[in-house]
Amino acid sequence: xxxxxxxxxxxxxxxxxxxxxxxxxxxxxxxxxxxxxxxxxxxxxxxxxxxxxxxxxxxxxxxxxxxxxxxxxxxxxxxxxxxxxxxxxxxxxxxxxxxxxxxxxxxxxxxxxxxxxxxxxxxxxxxxxxxxxxxxxxxxxxxxxxxxxxxxxxxxxxxxxxxxxxxxxxxxxxxxxxxxxxxxxxxxxxxxxxxxxxxxxxxxxxxxxxxxx
Length: 213
What we know:
The chain has about 210 residues and is an all-alpha fold. It is built from ten helices and no strands. This is Gamma-butyrolactone-binding protein.
């Protein structure tokens, strides 16, 4: 019995590693080629696996793209403890820094204009990130960091739209190297209009805040 359990655990661990390998290879290929330019053949070649191994874990490249898009928020963990408004700031700055070398986030950035090909509008990356921002901003409003008359859902959409546009322009103009600076600039303009005076004085906006030590 113990031997069978051990073999089952080894098999499960191997399956987890294979799935992760396929997902990372797909992220790299999507980041380089976009959704339309990617193929399951390119992905399996990048992963060093057979088509059968890929199809065991993912039905098609649409399923792979959905997995990558849905994983985006989980890959952005700020290096500092924070909550509410500061957490919303830290999330965007961490995203801006990690986007430079995380293949999953790079794939998400490349796929943003092709999401209608593989995922519904109710769960695309815009909706995911808007929900993340809205939760932080709602908490901030409850704790009197955000003015009571502010529509936190509208601000959440605005932040996501601004960050999306910032990464597109940064990609074209600087290879995204100045993306953290662009995100910081966005908050410098936005915060005085939504934050209470006491909260505004507490917020930390240095663009290096989202960068891991």
